[in-house]
TrEMBL record:
Stretches that traverse the bilayer: 12-35, 47-66, 90-110, 122-145, 152-170, 190-211
Family: Belongs to the CcmB/CycW/HelB family.
Stored InterPro entries: Cyt_c_biogenesis_CcmB
Membrane topology: Multi-pass membrane protein
Subcellular location per the Swiss-Prot or TrEMBL entry: Membrane
Domain of life, per lineage: Bacteria
Name under which the protein is recorded: Heme exporter protein CcmB
Keyword Transmembrane helix attributed: yes
Amino acid sequence: MQKDFRLEWRQRAALSGMLLYVGSTVFVCYLSFALRGGELPVPAWNALFWIILLFTAVNAVAKGFLQESRGRLLYYYTLVQPQAVIMAKIVYNALLLLGLALAGFGLYAVVLGNPVQNLPLFLANVVLGAVGFASTLTLVSGIAAKATNSSTLMAVLGFPLMVPMLLLLIKVSKNALDGLEFEASRSSLLTLVALNMIVSAVSYLLFPFLWRS
């Protein structure tokens, strides 16, 4: 994790590029709705937010293993256990996505309004979404890095795996937008927690076999 943070700090242009991507996407939504005098409907507000966050996650996490050269991976192989590598990548990507998600939500709310009535529920859902996106896409990035056309494989493998989680996230966000209590979203939140734990456990167990290939 320390290595990833240092590498990100040295390559600040990449982080700036991701922030620019979020900002430009929000600005396009503003040009399409608010600037023309139209009010963005709540379901559209919710859907656009998660679409922006999903594509931001793919762009941010894809470089996790794809930017590592084969020689550097061989060097890591001699230093640490594969479980330490995958868990460090997941935690780092989760923190990175959480920061991008909160920054994106702040900008999104300022530009297009904030219809969220249950803010704690919405933020808890954002945290679970960031962890879920990070854990799933980190494993997919590790698999795609072993292939020749890694960028295409990342999209092909990543998006089908994200659909069930994305449906749950949109459902909980809709409840938060409507002002419903935590009790109405308890089962969905527990399902999201279970999915995150399953993906992390699968990554922990299966990544050593991928590491040796």
